[in-house]
Amino acid sequence: DSLNRELENYGACALKRLIEDPGSITMDDWEDLSLLFANLCIRTPAAIEEMLTTHRQWYRDIMSILEPAKYDNSVRMTWKELREMGDSLVAKDAYLISATSSFKLLPDVAACIQQMHFLLIQAPEGHYFVTSDRPLTLRSGITDSRVGAGWGNRDALGSIPLCPTTLLMMLCHEARSISLASATAEQVAYLNLDTMRFASKEVYSCVESPSAYEWMKGFGSTP
Known about the structure:
Blueprint: H1 2-20, H2 27-42, H3 45-65, H4 79-88, H5 95-104, H6 106-113, E1 117-122, E2 137-140, E3 156-163, E4 166-171, E5 178-182, H7 185-197, H8 210-217
Parallel strand pairs: 1-5
Antiparallel strand pairs: 1-4, 2-3, 3-4
Helix pairs in contact: 1-2, 2-6, 3-4, 3-5
């Protein structure tokens, strides 16, 4: 929580400048934003649960291959320790293991984001970008899938709605820079569907953005 607060406090001002005046972004802002976006990518319950599922599958595969009688205890982990780790991954507080593992990735993810090109896409008046339980999505720009996508890959494509009127896309480029683009109403609808495609549910304030709420109701979703 203390780490989250620190990253959010430093990133809030840079994020405000990115939305209101992209040309004012400094080198320090780049660093703050990269850490903020990396944190938003790996700290959400959806991301932590996904990593926990991966960890559980790893240990199931390992345990199915190894046999106690043939296990070589000279290696780093004993059979007993392997069993204990497997049990811990299904315990009530197992999410803490995944959360800790996720935060260890923070510097590497931030270093990749810091080198990417920022494309700010602005919605036309009366249209809004929606967000979800996975605010920042990473996928492959080639396969359009999250499977096998990595921040260090040349085809990495990250996206996050910064506010109801602005969506940020991050992509690899020769040099980090910022550019602006105006979206049509149809493009906003497509990007919103794209956001929901990688989410299990939408998270949006119908009080602040009733138009977005009405738009989502049309797709049979539960804001």
